[in-house]
Each structure stands twice: as structure tokens, then as C-alpha cells.
Amino acid sequence: MKMKCPFCGYTESKVIDSRSADDSERIRRRRECLKCGKRFTTHEIIETVPVIVVKRDKSRESFDRNKLTNGLVRACEKRPVSIDKIEEIVNKIESKVQSSLDREVTTEEIGELAMKELKNVDEVSYVRFASVYRSFKDIETFMDELNKLLKEK
Q1: CB burial readout 89-101, b (16+ within 10 A) else e
Q2: Does the structure show a pLDDT above 80 at 82?
């Protein structure tokens, strides 16, 4: 496959190094442009059958790991959670969704998987994510979630 050089736009390059990344679901390749000689990295994703996400309003769209990543980044903002840890959580969730026999998954199922992972990483991020995901209507429902969290400790 021809990759376009990000520096000069030339379409011919050679692969210098290739290795698997993200539990062998992605391939990281170091390439060298045959025209300008500069090196760049590409990440190739192994194609799978798309998973359809069923939203709360019953509309459907393809699974988008970027949406999940953005939601987790917002929940972990100003918290001691690294972007690598967030990527690890997203990879786990995406792997579970892809390995499922169902080709459709609900936003509720994705949200529950995300909350389960966040609960083990950072409780404040978990509560932030849960407050948006579960759409807490008032302080009582928020307190109920906090009390559940405290009882589990």
C-alpha cells in the first residue's frame, strides 16, 4: 500500500520497521520517504465487521472509538489519569465490543463498560462520567451513586 509522505507528499516509501501495537489489533510501521528521505510513522488498523451502536433515541451509528475517548478524557480532566491509561481503557472496551457475537451494542452497554473500568482507575473520574452518562436529575440521585461507591469500599 502506498502511503503519502506527510513532509513532501510523495507516494513512494519503504517500511523500515513494523511491529504490532494494542494487543496485535494494530500495526505500527516506521517508513522512509523515497524522495525526501524523512521518516514517519503510520498506524494500520485491522479491519473488522463494523459494530453498530444503538443510541438512546434508537438511532444507529457505527462504533466510534474517538467519541468514547473524548468522553473519558472529559471525565478524567485535571485528574491523575494518563492518556495512555485512557487509551488502554478504550482498547479494552473496543476489544470487548468487537469480540462480541452481537453486531449491535447499546450506548448503555458501552457506558457500563466504561464506568466499570473508570471505577478501578479513579473514583472522581468515575463519578464525573456516571453523572453525564446516567443523567443525574437531582442531588439525591447523585448522592445515591456516591453512597453505592462508598458501600463498595
Answers
A1: bbbebbeebbeee
A2: yes
SS3 125: helix
**Distance, CA of 107 to CA of 121 (rounded, Å):** 21
Helices assigned H by DSSP within the chain: 65-75, 83-99, 107-121, 123-133, 139-152
Helical (H) or strand (E) element with 38: none
106: its cell numbers: 447499546
Q: What cell was used for 62?
A: 457505527
128: cell is 464525573
Q: How far is CA 24 from the centre of its chain?
A: 16
What is the pLDDT, as a whole number, of residue 48? Answer: 66
Q: How many CA atoms lie within 13 A of 13 on its CB side?
A: 26
Stated pTM of the model: 0.62
What integer pLDDT is reported at residue 61 of this predicted model? 94
Question: Cell 436529575 maps to which residue?
Answer: 137
Look at the alpha carbons of 72, 77, 81, 83 in this order and tell me if their dihedral is positive or negative.
Answer: positive
